[in-house]
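Sequence in, structure out.
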Amino acid sequence: MFRLLGLLLGALAVVGMPLFAVLGGISILSWLSSDDPKHRFLRRVAANVLDDKFANSIILVTIPLFVFVGYLMAESKTPSRIVGAASAVLGWMPGGLAIVCVLASAVFTMLTGGSGVTIVAIGGLLYPVLVSQGYPRKFALGLVTTAGAVGLLLPPSPLVLIYCYVTGVHVTKAYAATLWPGLVLAGILSAYSIYVGVKHKVPTTPFHLKTVGREFWRVKWEAFAPVLVLVGLGSGLMELHESAAAAAGYTLFIEVYIYKDLTWKKVLKVAKDAMSLAGAIIIILAMATALTNYIIHLQVPKNMLEWFVAKGMSEMWQFIIVLNIFLFIMGMLMDAFSVLLVALPLLVPLAANFGMHPFYLAVMFLLNLEIAYVTPPVGLNLFIASARFKRPVVDIYRVVLPFVGLLMGGLLLVIFVPSLSSFTVADEVAELRAKAAKLKVAPTEAWALECIQEDRNNLKPCSPEDIETWGADGTKRPDLPGQAGDAGAEEVVSEDDLFDEMMADDDDDDDEGKGGEDAADVEGGGGKAAAAGGGKPSDGDEKDEKKDGDGEDEDLEGGFD
């Protein structure tokens, strides 16, 4: 029965069934068809969706707010103001207008999280201007199709938020780390623009300070929005979700009351569209989290790692090659949000095994996705550009190839120079290591910044030196007091393990008539917790513990909900 339902689900996915329904359906069928009767509960699906990691995540609040900001700017005259200011500053340079296209596209993708939207908004605005100024049509078309790739790495990109949610890394530190590779990529595209401008002798416009001042005065209000976010985060005055709320309220105010580009009727439509997208992202996140719960239960990442190792993959460089090929293929078949939610949970344990830096993985992951978006034959942005500029998609294939080559070059630079994505936390890592050495404890906080962790509650060492000193599991040396793993240390029991024990106990309980006692066992959990911690209590002890089990009742009942 479940196999037939699984085949039906797969068929519906092929014909366009929504991704959240596919993920949720697979998760439900997987748990209900488990070989172990103890696991055939829908509570397994909800566990990671209702706990603090998901339900209380500030990222879930932040995503709709940043999406709303992007939609407000896209529906107003913000694109034309951004282009005007950039042209006034850079128009005097060879290839200046093309550089304007690179920077304006990067900023717009940064704000909206979608390079496809950038092609329509910024590309549609700049393509005819580039052609009229003397740039070759092929170059102009390729540039407006691919320039938005840079923005996925710049703060406050929503894709970086999703990456941080899945991997558990610090959002502000991730933004600081991805910023510099993004700027390097913008520099590569800008250098190519200068080369084309010089080669084709594209005319430039004189630099006039008065014009620069006038254009910047026009865009001053929008320019303050990202500054508000960065200053709030950098100063510590605001958390991520608070800075996003401030940016949303600020943008709404300036677009309606200062620029007056939007009426409240238009704002309501924009809000509806933005929340539809944000809601879709969040429900996909929830279903992907539920499916990840099952994948981890089956130890799929561990089995994948063992398979790759059996095939000879034992070095970091081998894993990087496999990783990039995998991400590139996934990026051509799925949208970026889906790849992050489906593939990243599988890759995190593999990356953790090889001690890969979390921000190194972030830049590779996002850049691969964007390159796949503009690579023939099935890159999504190619079809968006074909529809927007009314050109055959085969023509788009040809014009984007030089830019795909440049983006590939940027990816190789990131791969061969790992410090480009990790130097921003190098000083903090050194300070944390010095502090740990002074206290004679394991530098676990440094490990969290040095390599991606499979379990954020059980931090492990990254380097061979640390592994030799502290052990592969991060336990302390025998000559240091208070080490983890000492005799008599309390065993940590997860909620899922506790649930399994209680369900097994219920199955073995012959006294079916004493439903009140069974309910007390499940709700209180005191007897099982004590047994897991070392020794089963007597009946008298169990009765006493039921009276004091309110805190545990609350935790377990939340899990059952």
